[in-house]
Specification:
Pfam families: LRR_1. This is LRC43 protein. One of its GO terms (cellular component) is cytoplasm. The protein is α/β, with parallel strands linked by helices. It has two domains: 69 residues, no CATH class; 176 residues, Leucine-rich repeat, LRR (right-handed beta-alpha superhelix), CATH 3.80.10.10. 22% of the residues lie in helices and 7% in strands. It contains eight helices and eight strands, in the order αααααβββββαβαββα. The protein has an eight-stranded mixed β-sheet with strand order 1-2-3-4-5-6-7-8, with helices on one face. Helix 4 packs antiparallel against helix 5. The chain is extended.
Length: 327
């Protein structure tokens, strides 16, 4: 589940282990905050000697931070770690009470669980009351229940999973969602087209449906046209992208779109395709593919004819080949 992966991620960060958290390396610094007497010199005690005793064997915040930030340190995070992971480690040094126990749920604005074998989006996510970005790419998720998603979500990325049905996701979707990433899944049209409307995603700005199995361009455009805030759309890799008038029809049908398939839509292109949306008869549900075979080595050339002498009884050997392409 996502929750299990989340706790495993926290364990990997070591927020309670040296040089983070509270321990013998910084105990007096935080005992002074928790106890009115902790870390303070007693009556008649020498303040200088008391301070020397308390700090003996401890590290300064500056020294602990250096262990986190120095790339040669064994406690440094890998270079590809997220900025939030680095921020959590720093908080665990300077203010460990903020990342201790249930307080950790208030810290997370972004959660990235990538390629961890996650199959279930469970209700444990609801504890992350401030979560705005959830990245669950390259897992094994086939079903998402919207009731288990924080209502604060603005970005939901599910690229490279096994999602085939959007019904559960659209039961009570996060109302403020601005980006929905569903590329490289198993969505098929037209059964899923009806879930891609403003009735479910009123604030959607960016939508990635690339490399699924959408086939009905006219039907999909009809649904997408209700998304008044949509500016970025990715549909490449679907069968409908093979239609000759695919890009022009989309550009003219969705006038507020700024980027289609990672390519900016300029004024010249809009002028070029103006009026195409009113000619749906040009959108055919078929495509022609011409395949040219280049050089092939290691097999006889069937085009070479063997010239035989008149009356020769020698056997004639012929070659033929079949090349198959799967779409």
């Amino acid at each position: 589940s996502v929750s299990a992966a989340f706790w495993e991620h926290l364990r990997h960060l070591g927020l309670q282990d040296f040089p983070c958290g509270v321990g013998s390396w910084n105990k007096s610094r935080f005992d002074a905050r928790r106890s009115p007497r902790g870390g303070r010199p007693g009556p008649g005690a020498d303040p200088a000697r008391q301070e020397e005793t308390v700090l003996l064997g401890e590290e300064s915040p500056e020294a602990l931070m250096e262990l986190l930030c120095d790339r040669h340190s064994p406690w440094a995070l890998p270079p590809d770690c997220s900025p939030q992971d680095q921020h959590l480690r720093e908080m665990a040094v300077l203010a460990p009470e903020l990342v201790h126990s249930s307080n950790i749920f208030q810290v997370f604005r972004s959660l990235r669980i990538i390629d961890k074998g996650v199959e279930e989006v469970d209700e444990g996510l609801l504890q992350l009351h401030q979560l705005e970005e959830l990245i669950l790419s390259a897992n094994h998720i086939s079903r998402i229940t919207s009731a288990n998603l924080p209502r604060t979500l603005k970005v939901l990325e599910l690229c490279c999973n096994a999602v085939a049905d959007l019904q559960d996701l659209c039961a009570h979707p996060p109302p403020e969602l601005q980006h929905l990433g569903l590329g490289y899944n198993r969505l098929c049209g037209p059964s899923q087209d009806k879930y891609l409307t403003a009735a479910f995603w009123p604030n959607l700005v960016s939508l990635d449906l690339s490399f699924n199995n959408f086939t009905d361009l006219l039907g999909l455009v009809t649904q997408l046209s209700s998304l008044q805030k949509l500016r970025i759309l990715v549909l490449q890799g679907n069968p409908l992208a093979l239609i000759p008038t695919y890009r022009g029809f989309l550009v003219d049908s969705l006038p507020k779109l700024s980027i289609l398939d990672d390519i900016h839509i300029g004024p010249d292109e809009r002028h070029q395709f103006h009026g195409l949306a009113r000619q749906p008869e040009l959108v055919r549900s078929e495509a022609r593919v011409v395949v040219s075979i280049g050089k092939i080595k290691g097999v006889p050339d069937p085009s070479t004819c063997l010239q035989l002498e008149v009356g020769s009884e020698a056997p004639v050997i012929t070659y033929s080949y079949c090349v198959t392409y799967e779409f």
